[in-house]
Design a protein that fits this description.
Blueprint: H1 3-8, E1 12-18, E2 24-30, E3 32-34, E4 37-43, H2 47-54, E5 57-63, E6 74-80, H3 83-112, E7 117-123
Protein name: PPOX class F420-dependent oxidoreductase
Enzyme class: oxidoreductase
GO molecular function: oxidoreductase activity
């Protein structure tokens, strides 16, 4: 089983981004498979989005809802998606997380509008 397959099967993953000074900032998020990458969804003004724009270096590990890892972390490279790809990722989240995913995305769209969130694609060297 590849890293991508293993992580895409998880309900939550811990995405760790890195500050300029090298400090790690872990965040538990929902994740879905998007072709040859793992995709996550985030508020466009979130700290992790800013850190990914600066440097796409991340690690990803399976975790529980509170962010406690229960497997090894894998290094990856993250990129911020354009509007079309972000829309596709929102649809994938709705499919995987069903009613809870739909309600969460609806609440986010009401609060922030469609441009207030972005998709993030993470690829793994294999």
């Amino acid at each position: 089983m590849t890293t991508l397959d293993r992580l895409a099967a998880e309900k939550y993953v811990l995405v760790t981004t890195f500050r300029k000074d090298g400090r790690a900032v872990p965040t538990p998020v929902w994740a879905v498979r998007d072709g040859d990458a793992l995709a996550v969804w985030s508020a466009a003004d979130a700290g992790k989005v800013k850190r990914i724009r600066r440097s796409g270096d991340v690690t990803v590990a399976p975790c529980d809802v509170r962010g406690r890892p229960h497997g090894p972390a894998s290094p990856g490279h993250a990129t911020i998606c354009d509007a079309d790809a972000s829309s596709r990722i929102r649809q994938l989240i709705k499919e995987k997380y069903r009613l809870l995913g739909r309600l969460t995305l609806l609440g986010s769209r009401v609060r922030r509008g469609t441009g207030g969130t972005v998709g993030i694609r993470i690829t793994f060297p294999e």
